[in-house]
Design a protein that fits this description.
This protein is of the alpha/beta class. It has 10 helices and 6 strands, in the order αβαβαβααβαβααβαα.
Amino acid sequence: MTGASRGVGRGVALGLGEAGATVYVTGRTVDVANAAVPLDGTVLETAEMVSGMGGKSTAIPCDHDDDQQVEAVFERIDAEQGRLDVLVSNAWRGYEGYSTGEHFPPDHPFWLKPLSYWDENLVGLRWAYVAGVLAARRMTEKRAGLIVNVSFGVPEPGNPAYNIAKSGADRLTWEMAHQLRPHGIAVISLYPGLVRTESVLLNAQYFDMTQSESPLFTGRAVAALAADPDVIRRSGQAVTVAELSRAYGFADIDNPFKSQES
């Protein structure tokens, strides 16, 4: 589970822990005082929370900009578990500027955003590719496995860097699925809705939070996919968390914003 210090990544880790899985979580933040963004959450806290949900978890501090650190994560999993069943690629940097205030107002046209905004969005695509390569090398030996790339559907124009990053993630899923299907490995793009991450809650005034989802909802979607013996039928597809909720019969936790409106 990459990018699990907080947000969707933490929610996925907790959903897998709730299902009793052994979860390795990566992230840069080990000390909130030295975090790259002014948000609560560390990868160590996530591991503790997974254990509290009934799973087993190991936190591995990792900067996905460093391929050697990423390779070391997979090597540790090899040494300690001897297998890798599921990879969830979630690590991404595209929203960090919204947490720091650098990218406001959010409706700025692309030419008024800093040039770094492109790299912050697109670098996560490389991280997913690298993790996918390292996972595939292991999963093809076992001829089984599931790779989930956290993405989002972007049918409308308006944010080129973000939209290209997410479109690229979906193409990456499709390409990987094509080559890995003969090896029994499923690759899926997963679309959460509006998730109540720490970053979104910090900027809740810009969103209709009555329609928001908990991070755990995405985690339950991943757990359902991992438990599906015929998940290969979905390989190459992009699916929403809400769609999987209906298909597999899991539910979200209560939405406090919705209860306030009712």
